[in-house]
Design brief:
mainly alpha; globular; about 300 residues; about 0% strand
Length: about 300
Amino acid sequence: MTPAADRAVVGAPVVSPTAAVPARRRGEWQRARSSLRRNRLALVSGIILVLVLVGAAFAPLLAPHDPNEIDILNTLRPPSLASVHPLGTDGLGRDILSRVLYGARISLVVSVVALAMSTSLGVTLGLVSGYFRGAVDDVLMGLADIELAFPSILLYIIALAVMGPGLLNIILVLGITRWVPFGRVVRGEVMAIREKEFILAARAVGLGHGRIILRHILPNLVAPVIVVASFGISTNIILESSLSFLGLGVPVAVPTWGAMLNDGREVLRVAWWPATMPGLAIMLTVLGVNALGDWLRDFLDPRLSGAE
């Protein structure tokens, strides 16, 4: 009899290898939930981010007014829960709550789409640079060093001044120029992985470069890329708000958090809420993303996961 048959005879259950995969995944999800419950800051941050996402996704249903509706008779109304304008109105009588909800859509769309572009570009260039080394590595990392030496916000301002403001343009600028953090992290990880025994064994059996990169190196980059991406979202939110504050973001008719800050700055001496409300939205969203990023870094770090 085979060992599996012997165990069946004595009544021990035979576990299929394919059945162990869902069980392992359930164990990982349980460990993640347990870790998140212990980290109160990350848990609260996750709740805040869920509320921001819900508000952005259902802004047309949740917004009490049209975000661009001007009401000269109700300018600079202070916040009041008993009012039809819970967060007050700005200098043109526009409802601030409605504009904050619609502004979340712009910030999240720009941040996520630009992040997808920069992640794809950075991971690809980092893989090529770290794996092949040599002249390719020198050229790519030289470009990265040049971009890091150049003031980032000045680079974005020059690019948008040439291309013109607009949602697509700001996504392209952030997506193309923000690849360096991903590229440098991936390059460092690949340089360490390519010398491991399993990579040397793959080369010894004749596997090609493409198969080694896709099957053996790329899966080991998921954790560091996720961590860098989590912080990249908050950076993109701040950059989009900064560019909109300077008038280089989306058109003026589209409500954004940065443009609201600029409008509120003009009446800050007589009314604090037009600038404070979008500022709080930016602060809470960025802090929430960063707190979840800290938790993800600790959770995905194998040196720390064993201590949980």
